[in-house]
Design goal:
4 helices, alpha+beta, two-stranded antiparallel ribbon, 8-stranded mixed barrel
Length: 292
């Protein structure tokens, strides 16, 4: 093989190796909201009705010891995620890109299932929720069963998020928890949706937004939601985005751009907590728009 042909073959090989790297991540390293002119959504948040006062107090999980152990084993550990009703109860790591932990576990060992990792642009500051990014994004794999063919809510890692595609489960599990060295932060789920990845007109996978773009994001993800949650969210709120792959719209080879997302708003300062979510089925969720 002559030299030009070798160069072409090497380039093709590199592209094929890198293609799966976007499988559960909303974008590749190097993207930013400055590189994409975000379209402002014309939709408005659905009306939110005031719920009655409640004496309910969520059972705050204890994970401080597990978090400290995880930090001692890997300094890339930034928190601990707990999603009640699922098997998601483990460390979250972060490094300077979105590729390093793609096929590594939280101890940096090779692992096809990977781990839970935070987007490299998200920041939790000193661990106090008030110092978090506007949007904190956490990724995890959905391996599918059989692999890469269909979603399975009983699968590994973020495959468990598909439990929230069930009305009764979503109703019975209104909160998830993110633990840092400063304490346990409560997040109230307000949308569960299927989406494009970086092709979305109002991308969900950026850490920072202008007020205008953030309001557009919140409006857009509500229109996509499988359920209409009676939860008020505005530009003053901090959110956490849990993102994974889905096979709802074909296998990975057929469509590598599809994602399943669960979002929660920081609820630490709420006056009232509720045992169940107030929601109903969205009769017409906005569908993803994929390239042809």
């Amino acid at each position: 093989m002559n030299r030009p042909c070798k160069r072409i073959a090497a380039a093709v090989f590199c592209c094929l190796m890198l293609l799966p790297m976007a499988a559960c991540v909303g974008r590749n390293q190097g993207s930013s909201d400055s590189e994409s002119e975000q379209q402002v959504s014309s939709w408005e948040n659905p009306p939110v009705t005031e719920r009655p006062e409640s004496d309910f107090q969520p059972e705050i999980p204890e994970a401080a010891d597990q978090l400290q152990t995880a930090i001692s084993q890997n300094s890339d550990t930034v928190g601990w995620l707990i999603v009640p009703g699922t098997e998601i109860n483990e460390a979250v790591v972060q490094t300077t890109d979105n590729e390093y932990y793609y096929r590594r576990d939280a101890l940096k060992n090779s692992s096809f299932a990977g781990c839970l990792w935070m987007d490299y642009e998200s920041s939790i500051g000193d661990g106090e929720a008030e110092n978090f990014s506007r949007n904190t994004i956490i990724y995890g794999h959905n391996l599918g069963r059989p692999q890469g063919v269909r979603d399975d809510a009983n699968g590994e890692k973020f495959a468990q998020l598909f439990k929230f595609d069930d009305l009764e489960f979503a109703k019975e599990h209104p909160y998830f928890y993110f633990v840092t060295t400063k304490g346990t932060h409560i997040y109230e789920i307000f949308t569960v949706f299927y989406s494009e990845d970086k092709l979305s007109p109002v991308p969900y996978h950026y850490a920072s937004y202008s007020d205008k773009d953030y309001e557009a994001l919140l409006n857009d993800v509500r229109t996509r939601s499988q359920f209409d949650y009676n939860v008020s969210v505005d530009k003053e709120d901090k959110i956490i985005t849990l993102s994974t792959c889905t096979y709802k719209y074909g296998t990975y080879s057929q469509n590598p751009h599809q994602r399943f997302v669960v979002m929660g708003r920081l609820a630490n300062g709420d006056k009232n907590f509720y045992e169940t979510a107030d929601l109903q089925v969205n009769p017409d969720p906005k569908a993803p728009s994929f390239p042809r």
